[in-house]
Amino acid sequence: MTTRIERHHYDVVVIGAGGAGLRAAIEARLAGKRTAIISKSLFGKAHTVMAEGGAAAAMGNVNPRDNWQVHFRDTMRGGKFLNNYRMAELHAKEAPQRIWELETYGALFDRTKDGKISQRNFGGHEYPRLAHVGDRTGLELIRTLQQKIVSLQQEDKKEHGDYEARIKVFAETTITDLLLDSDRRIAGAFGYYRESGEFVLFEAPAVVLATGGVGRSYKVTSNSWEYTGDGHALALRAGATLINMEFLQFHPTGMVWPPSVKGILVTESVRGDGGVLRNSEGRRFMFDYVPDVFRKQYAETEEEADRWYTDPDNNRRPPELLPRDEVARAINAEVKAGRGSPAGGVYLDVSTRLSPEEIKRRLPSMYHQFKELADVDITKQPMEVGPTCHYVMGGVEVDPDTTAAVGNVQGLFAAGEVSGGMHGSNRLGGNSLSDLLVFGKRAGEHAAAYVDTLGTRPKVSTADVEAAVEQALAPLERKGGESPYRLQQDLQTVMGDLVGIIRRKSELEEALVRLAELRDRANRVSVAGGRRYNPGWHLALDLRNMLIVSECTARAALEREESRGGHTREDFPTMSPKWRTVNLVCSLDGDKVRLEHKPLPKMPPELMKLFDRAELAKYLTDEELAEFDALTAEAHAEEAAK
Amino acid sequence: MTTRTAPPPAGLPGSVRQRAAIAARTLRTDRWWFAPLITVIGLVAWVTYATVRVFMHDRYWVGDYHYLTPFYSPCVTERCLPEAAHFGRVLPGWWIIPDAALTLPFLLLFRLTCYYYRKAYYRSFWLSPPACAVPDAHKRYTGETRFPLLGQNLHRYAFYAAAIISAINTWDAILAFHSPEGFGFGLGNVILVGNVLMLWAYTLSCHSCRHVTGGRLKHFSRHPVRYRLWTFVSKLNVRHMQLAWITLGTLALTDFYIMAVASGWISDLRFIN
Amino acid sequence: MGNQDAPVKTGTTRHFRIWRGDESGGELVDYQVEVNEGEVVLDVIHRLQATQAPDLACRWNCKAGKCGSCSMEINGMPRLGCMTRMSTFDDNETVTITPLRTFPIIRDLVTDVSFNYEKARETPAFAPPPDLAPGEYRMQQVDVERSQEFRKCIECFLCQNTCHVIRDHEENKPAFSGPRFFIRAAELDMHPLDTRNDRKEYAQASQGLGYCNITKCCTEVCPEGIKITDNAIIPMKERVVDRRYDPLVWLGSKIFRRGQREAEQTARESAPVGTAHSHAGASHEPGAEAEAERGVHWGRQVPQPQAPAVDSRGRLPISEFTFDRPAAPSPFGEDVTFPMPPKDLNYAHPEQKD
Ligand SMILES: Cc1cc2nc3c(=O)[nH]c(=O)nc-3n(C[C@H](O)[C@H](O)[C@H](O)COP(=O)(O)OP(=O)(O)OC[C@H]3O[C@@H](n4cnc5c(N)ncnc54)[C@H](O)[C@@H]3O)c2cc1C
Ligand code: SF4
Ligand code: SF4
Ligand code: FES
Ligand code: FES
Question: Whole-angstrom Cα distance, residue C311 to residue B19?
């Protein structure tokens, strides 16, 4: 082979330098493993920096009634009971510990009066629960983890004389393939340096995927170019499975004007801190959209809603704080009914409730963002907002405790947005940042443990490497083909128009046909220029991933005949208890995407008992309810016996 | 661990990777040269005026109203008019010695080492750099790491001196509520008091002051009073640059007014006596 | 909202000059690009990539001024591409876009910013209080606010790029960490629970705080509006003054000749504190004392002869007055201070056991 390939040997390779990846790397390094962190962008720029609202953890600093059970309940409710209960449980239990740990790494959260970490309200959370720093919590999180890694490197330097003795960051490096040995164990990861276009091979028995989401397949999205579903596709190709891919979260409030910033997020804390939604007629329309399941917890009049901000214990919360999918759908419906703003959104207004100083103090980066990007002064004017593709609930199917990928592969772990199951059909705001920490830690820990169990190290086969090189170079070698930018635009149109926020059978079928065409065209894409920092080439390689992941989404969306959380079918507008028991699992069969039904793991009685029967009745099938009744009866009997 | 070492990351000491070869020394299209230019003009004009005045040894005292210009306060040489010398006449009256020789050097040091003036003259006189993203005019640069400029660190002590001198100026302004009939109050007093107020504002807005009042603390919450002080000084500190220029203006104006009254070019506008 | 009557106006064509090239050279290339209302410079670059120049290299991530990837120089001023609205330029104004000047070029608008990551790695990390478990940290909002300002930093490195100390003087790079890391040092020094108390000395001795002549360009370009100079650099300089340049202490040390230990710290090397940068410097290792007591330390490093310190022209200083430290250069080398730590001596007291 003529291409020179740089080789590195590590114990654990973490793909992704966002919250999940960094936390995993820290844990693997603390377990004494030599660890590589790989990231498509520079160190510290991963998507996590953009998270604004905060990280949910039931620390009970603001409202002492909060505890993990309540958090667990909120998470399950938000995910419409489709969550993997075990993940939700671990998440609720471990999140506070993970947040406190950040303080020992140097994080500076906003404080309460008695000096503890302050927590704020957020959609779907019963109590103020989000640890935050102004509206730049994600930045704080990633910077803290980044600095922790630096501090570990400083320790290594002291011990071994080299900062990179045990943990090294490969910034601006993209992984294009995972390599397995003949026993289907992970043997390494193959990729290229974006800067030079040189190839690089990491030989390692354990890989942690923490590559984030898939939003770039959509026209209007809050996600950056990094979010091309690489991790999802890498896992599929390595033999792992994806679940819940039909569930995409459309954030209700993205900027819709000016066109160039379409999709950029307006944080939920705007609503948490008193922002109200109005349509072009000036009506506070969210009161019309409170679904029955939530009727009890939300205010019915504007007066009651307004009182909640100052007296949350005696009033119900305003409907603006409904879970994201509800708000997104409501806005979508208003706009479709012709009551939207000129740019196709609705109005979000904080200026009526808060003083300008208060707004600038509580929402500094929003103030900044609107001033700079849209020339709108949010202390005086309302913002124009609309739904934007924000988060993918689906992802790599993992074992809840070890985060090891399920499927025909060993040594692969996944954490963060790229993993699936934790959030069910819809993620609560703030649950992602804590998810990153909880499962990032677990991934690092278990990847390290897995390495210890290995007798011999899996070997990378030369043929696989050659195939990977060939794949990667193909778009550069073809001449006269289509431009990858064009293809990406077409893909975004297909996904945005046909597999968007409201879905129909016919459209989904059409989408599948179009996606097949696109896959065909993708094989003929060619790019100009050389290998050095060539964004066209990078996009051409990412397209392959976007296409298969999009296909999974479209197939699963077509299959699931109900509406739930981040999946709304116009032809099946209600939730069906029957579908609640089913996860849709995608796998790759050669080149083809295969979809299977898989029963959801059953929640154990002690967790089941955290819920009201009336609430469960909305989600569960009759058989499940009967089981629940039997359980409660048993419990009563036991009590009576005592 | 690595079978082929990666190319050395650039930016490391001793690296050889090149910067972008951009021909133009600066591509700024705005009038970046304006601010340094105006600073040069302003400072040169002021220094010229002040020098002339300091060595004039005359027209600094209005006997009727006890107006003493800040440039001669306190007047301490044998040349001083006895009634203007509130603090004794201890220095010989040579021409080369300014009459306020005990304070002027400290004031000079105070302003020379002031963080704002440093910025101003480094940019506009030393062109290091003349404006942001405009190249430095010097081949080598060591900043304030070695001898003469290391002395900038004396600012703290110049600040203490300046605070004392501001107190002296305040005393002068109080003594000036005078007329041959006893108490008096005229336009000159307004100017003197205004000048003193501005001098205090400038002196208190000093970064060293901000540091000693509270900036050096690690825990504001344990020192609520100093925290309040610090907050107050911080507010003033934001305007330090403006105050630096305003005080140059008020100093020159006060001095000029007193010179004009002392020479009899104009007569003081009296409100009381 | 002002724009409601015409939400989407069709664009005008504007003239752009963009630097294209790599380390072997490059030039400003002219482009005519369509610009729509409400767009920012980064949008224009994306349009160029999608139409005329598919291989135009440029970093970006968030498009919302949050990640600090899209740093570039627009009409000569260091700025974020995603935060520079096209409406800030006149309709017929040519917009010139170049890569950051201070860092080595990779290609087009992408530069190698690893300098900053190197410096980040040298800055001593947060030192948590050993007696507090996670969850026990208590801090008051007023105490964390100063540090929080600095933690707003998105690491766009515009300040690093603008700072003339390294922008115009490549040779200062080893000794100078730059404003981004001054705010990091200040952040930690002001952190209510950080337990290290040598951050000021570190900033002065190893980060090159003294190189900064407080001309405030870093503050001018910081997209996060961090008052780098006023709130971090000057307070750090003042904190250094507290310890190092307090004239009274200095005078005392001149008279009583006790200042050498501190003078050692002016040695302009950038070895991080804590990795004992000379065999004879005050040892920071807690075990050193115990080890010394155990007796002869045969494995110690033998002092290397040091060249005498020379002035900027490479000559021996003629007069003490113009030299940057008091007294003549030490014949034992500039970084040897007396008394030497016992650990570095090849001597054990006869009565000492093993
Ligand atoms: C605008 C916005 C606001 C948000 N606000 C909140 C909030 O308030 N609260 C909350 O809890 N969540 C929020 N989220 C969601 C949350 O930020 C993300 O889900 C989370 O950051 C994902 O983190 P991660 O670690 O999984 O991946 P990321 O942080 O996205 O990191 C992915 C990493 O993988 C790397 N990578 C990807 N592909 C490859 C490849 N092929 N090779 C090598 N490296 C690769 C990337 O370079 C990157 O470093 C928000 C998201 C957005 C977009
Ligand atoms: S103030 Fe100091 S650090 Fe900032 S740009 Fe100027 S010289 Fe550099
Ligand atoms: S301090 Fe400001 S300019 Fe410097 S890197 Fe941070 S955000 Fe950028
Ligand atoms: S007087 Fe200007 S900083 Fe002290
Ligand atoms: S793209 Fe993130 S700051 Fe500009």
Answer: 29
Please write down the HEC assignment for all residues of A560-582.
CCCCECCEEECCECCCCHHHHCE
Return the DSSP state at B221: G
What distance in Å separates the CA atoms of residue A262 and residue A250, rounded to the nearest whole number? 13
What are the tokens at B135? 């190249």
C233 in contact with ligand 3, CB cutoff 6 A: no
Distance CA A142, CA A136 (A): 10
**Encoded tokens for A349:** 């207004």
Do C12-111 and C113-354 agree at the fold level?
no
- The mean pLDDT value of chain B amounts to 89
pLDDT at position A46 over 80: yes
Q: Which two tokens stand for residue A385?
A: 């907002």
pLDDT > 70? residue A453 = yes
CATH number of this structure's domain C12-111, picked from the four choices 3.10.20.30, 1.10.3720.10, 3.40.630.190, 1.10.510.10: 3.10.20.30
Which of A354, A362, A254, A366 lies closest to A306, judged by CA? A354
Residue among A4, A9, A196 minimizing CB distance to B1: A9
Among A347-351, A415-419, A632-636, C288-292, name the one with the lowest average pLDDT: C288-292
Give me B270's structure tokens: 């009296």
β-strand partners of A178:
A189
Residues in chain C closer than 8 A to A43 (CB atoms): 117
The tally of CA atoms less than 13 A away on the side-chain side of residue A76 is 28
C140-182 pLDDT, tens digit per residue, is 999 999 999 999 999 999 999 999 999 999 999 999 999 999 9
Facing residue for A259 by CB, picked from C38, C138, C152 = C38
Nearest residue of B to residue A34, measured between CA atoms: B1
Q: Is the dihedral of CA A346, A350, A353, A355 positive or negative?
A: negative
Using most ligand atoms within 8 A of CB, pick from C119, C161, C216, C230 the residue to mutate for ligand 2: C216
Q: Where are the domains of chain B?
A: 40-135+148-272
What is the per-residue pLDDT across C56-105, written as a single tens digit (0 to 9) for each?
999 998 888 889 999 999 999 999 999 898 889 998 899 999 999 999 99
Domain boundaries, chain C: 12-111, 113-354
Asked if A195 has any chain C CB less than 8 Å from its own CB, the reply is yes
For the stretch A521-531, what's the b/e string if a residue is b when 16 or more beta carbons lie within 10 angstroms of its beta carbon? bbeebbbebeb
C83 CA to centre of ligand 5 in angstroms: 8
Q: What is the per-residue burial (b if ≥16 Cβ within 10 Å, else e) of C133-168?
A: ebeebebbbebbebbbbbbbbbbbbbbbbbbbbbbb
CA distances from A260 to A111, A142, A550, B58, C59 (A): 36, 27, 24, 68, 17
- Residues A71-83 pLDDT 10s: 999 999 999 999 9
How far, in Å, CA of A534 to CA of A233, rounded? 22
Kindly compute the dihedral angle of the four CA atoms of residues B6, B7, B9, B14, in this order, to the nearest 10 degrees.
130
Reply yes or no on whether the pLDDT at A255 is more than 60: yes
What is the C-alpha separation between C4 and C286, in angstroms, rounded? 68
CATH 1.10.1060.10 fits C113-354, yes or no: yes
- Residue A166 to residue C188: CA distance in whole angstroms: 25
Interface pTM, i.e. ipTM: 0.88
C-alpha B239/C-alpha A542 separation (Å) is 52
- C338 inside 8 A of chain B by CB: no
Q: Which of A373, B29, B31, B34 is nearest to C95 (CA)?
A: B29
Distance CA C195, CA A518 (A): 58
> Poorest-confidence range of A362-376, A618-632, C245-259?
C245-259
Q: Note the pLDDT tens digit of each residue in B187-229.
A: 999 999 999 999 999 999 999 999 999 998 999 999 999 999 9
